Amino acid sequence: MPIKLAMIFPGQGSQSVGMMKAYAGLPGIDDVLATASATLGEEFGALLDVGPAEALNLTVNTQPAMLAAGSAVFRAWTMLGGMRPSYVAGHSLGEYSALVAGGSLSLVDALALVRCRAEAMQRAVPAGEGAMAAVLNLADDEVRAACAEAAQGGVVEAVNFNAPGQVVIAGDKAAVARAIEACKARGAKRAMSLPVSAPFHSSLMQPAADALRIRLEEVSVLPPVIELVNNVDVTVERTPDRIRLALVRQAASPVRWSETMQKFADLGVTHLLECGPGKVLAGLAKRCQPGIQCIALFDRNAVEAAVAELRDE
């Protein structure tokens, strides 16, 4: 059976201080990180390597850090002669890394864009007023019903459909707390707050989406050379205007990751590579589509082994 490859790019949550040291010696890594430092300031490179973690975990730093990381690993993959993917996708912020890989955005434009996106998201809801929580082992419709019950004039919504039985909710802090209890009452195995600084992908992020719309009008977006399955509609968009619109809507709309994995299965994808630090997306993909082979490119050895494996199959 011929290989049909897709690459998926992680977003916030997979970052860690020193994460790029795991890729030391791979071609292209240092060049991408140098571009990131030149674009965002020399202190950005130091932040990646030595932290502190509290600073790296700030949204305004995490988003460009993960973009740089995913882009660097993809550059290394390409320079090593790795198989060209038929499709790309990224979880939330990871969609920007996927668009860089697919040739729609330049790395420099994407870095500036995600820094703008992160700042706008943090402005949209003041620190301490929003919250997110993970809900495990409860059906999607039950999570939605719990949110509707818990809103009570506030906002709480299901915003990340990551895998069967793994949903993230977000909204006003008090409403999220009520929804956690409502999910537990409906039989959730666990429902727990997440250490984040804003209610990402909820309707409360609409001011950030509006700011992003203005910024995207100033950025060159090209038709992709590798097709991207987007988060917001689970569709393949090929025109720059449609790609821009999807990025704007994505900021204040749910991440439909389970459906994205189903879309890959429908498209005949046989292999998925998680391109960047961590193994979170590979794990989710295995839960969503156990028939697709999933590999995490989490360090130099993993990258080199995957290049050789896919070349030999």
Summarize the structure in words:
This protein is of the alpha/beta class. Helix content is 48%, strand content 15%. The longest helix has 21 residues. The protein starts with a strand and ends with a helix. The model has no long low-confidence stretch (mean pLDDT 96).
The count of helical stretches stands at 13
Distance N to C terminus = 9 Å
**From the alpha-carbon coordinates, what is the Rg to the nearest angstrom?**
19 Å
Low-confidence stretches: none
- Pattern of helices and strands: EHHHHEHHEHEEHEHEHHEHEH
Helix fraction, binned, reads 40-55%
The fraction of residues in strands falls at 15-25%
The largest β sheet comes out as: 5 strands, parallel
Mean pLDDT across every amino acid position: 96
